[in-house]
Amino acid sequence: MSVSYLILTLLHIHTAVVARPGGESVGCDDYLGSDKVVDKCGVCGGDNTGCQVVSGVFKHALTSLGYHRVVEIPQGATKINITEMHKSNNYLALRSRSGRSIINGNWAIDRPGKYEGGGTMFTYKRPNEISSTAGESFLAEGPTNEILDVYMIHQQPNPGVHYEYVIMGGNAISAPAPPHRRPGEPFNGQLVPERRSQDEGAEKDGDEERADVHGGGAPEIFTPESAQTFPVRHPDRFSSHRPDSVVPQPPRRSRDHNWKQLGTTECSASCGKGSQYPIFRCVHRNTHEEVPESYCDSSTKPAPEEEPCNIFPCPAFWDIGEWSECSKTCGLGTQHRQVLCRQVYANHSLTVQPYRCQHLEKPGTTSTCQLKICSEWQIRTDWTSCSVPCGVGQRTRDVKCVSNLGDVVDDEECNMKLRPSDIENCDMGPCAKSWFLTEWSERCSAECGAGVRTRAVVCMTNHVSSLPLEGCGNNRPAEAAPCDNGPCTGKVEWFAGSWSQCSIECGSGTQQREVICVRKNADTFEVLDPRECSFLEKPPSQQSCHLKPCGAKWFSTEWSMCSKSCQGGFRVREVRCLSDDMTLSSLCDPQLKPGERETCNPQDCVPEVDENCRDRYYNCNVVVQARLCVYNYYTAACCASCTRVASRRSGFLGSR
Fold first, then answer.
1. Which domain of life is it from (predicted)?
2. 3-state secondary structure labels for all residues of 340-399
3. Burial label, 51 (beta-carbon count in 10 A; 0-12, 13-18, 19+)
4. Sign of torsion over alpha carbons 576, 578, 582, 585
5. What φ, ψ does residue 39 adopt, rounded to 5°?
6. What pLDDT is recorded for position 621?
7. What is the three-class DSSP state of 16?
8. Which end of the chain offers a freer environment for a tag, N or C, measured as fewer CB atoms within 10 Å?
9. Average pLDDT, the chain
């Protein structure tokens, strides 16, 4: 007994026995406490003797494409399971003995689903998951009310088809072969009803019923030559199979005209199974001369039935698919296409084994491709001067993506991983530092006695940036010095303190100082009421101040090196507007601004003669015209020509 049938039996037992809360169960006879179950034959309380399980595996090695019979399912069969043992490019097909196609008939592949046939419902499954290895299957509960035939549409080696069904009674032990074909026999390349005369069919049935039910020999092979024996309907044969081509009319002695077949229509296909229809005309009963159709009874005109014609397969051919996209967007790449051997039958194109197209040269499936020549990076200028005269700054250069035609294109068309750097740091060395001093003030802070004189002290570098005071060291020069204008006698006078710093650094501002009335003694000062000095002119306690004009001047760095050594280059320098306190200013006169760029080295270049740099081919001028000198191969093959054009190009860039 097969494993699949045991599983089905266990499922029946599981559904037939229902547990009750009290521990008792209900048998298949619906009695509480009954232990009866459904046997494998579907009988409640049966002993498995009322049926027989028929199973087997169809493993014939098939060589020809098309429909091959697998097994016959007899009338009354139940628990039908037809399963392909492994996924393949073959298909299962189902046909009734009456000639009606149920699943995958006439070279048309149906979708998986439910299909009615033989009095039962068949479930057609075709797993389509990539990871699945299960093959196709037909499943049905039955029972069937007629004989059914299972076929395989053979396209690749047969992986094996397992079949199993249950029939009532104890005499069936194996699957019977149909009276028309042996297992694996091709059905003339298609699954359509066969038309035979009664005598021919009886004789053929008698012969095949005596053959081995398993087809002891190898299956027959369907070839274009064997297709000539396929029974077709000729113009002189009708479905009634009567030799007379005249369709009999109702017995009416008064009828002088009747319908007669006069040929057939042209076949709809020159090969691969077409269709044609008989042509019926109204003729005189005795002379058989054609007359207008109105002479005959239109209600008795036979309906034309479709007849197969030119059933031999069309020659196989190579079906060529579209090329895939090139594997690279520039430069040499590859592209692929699908090439399949196909054959047309019954208006359906079917993929067949490649050997059927061996009479034709197979087109290539892989080809080289090049959408365009890749662009590359070019350095257009030398490095600029450093952004600072001392310390660490930056310098830049121009880097562009250039096509094979020499045009500047978007950076995305070049390999960004290979892009040369266009900015880098530069170190101009340490900046010099020193103390900057003003002159001492001319006046002493006191008109008599001890006072002080002052000056300004600042730490600066030799360029715009200022540094912290400790950058100039710890030896800061003094900002004040003592002074003495002589001893003061005990007179009353106004004493003025030191002026405060100017309220602004340049331009017009104000200064403040304290003025008091004092009496100078030998060693001390006595502060008096200001009225005591009222007879004296009081010095001002506030005055305007103007340290220096708030002018600004243009400062510039040294010139950079020339960008070219000959044929005209350029050099640059940095120009800034600085105020009196060495800060950036916008007060400089733009018309007096020094130039930031000028030409240099205008003399012609004297090329160096390289004996190893020469043209290896006579047509190097074509390489130059095609702008191929950007590639290393052409630079080496046409060295002299590429060097000359490079010199002219660099001269052009330098003059821009």
1. Eukaryota
2. EEEEEECCEEEECCHHHHCCCCCCCCEEEECCCCCCEEEECCCCCCCCCCCCEEEEECCE
3. buried
4. negative
5. -80, 180
6. 86
7. helix
8. C
9. 76
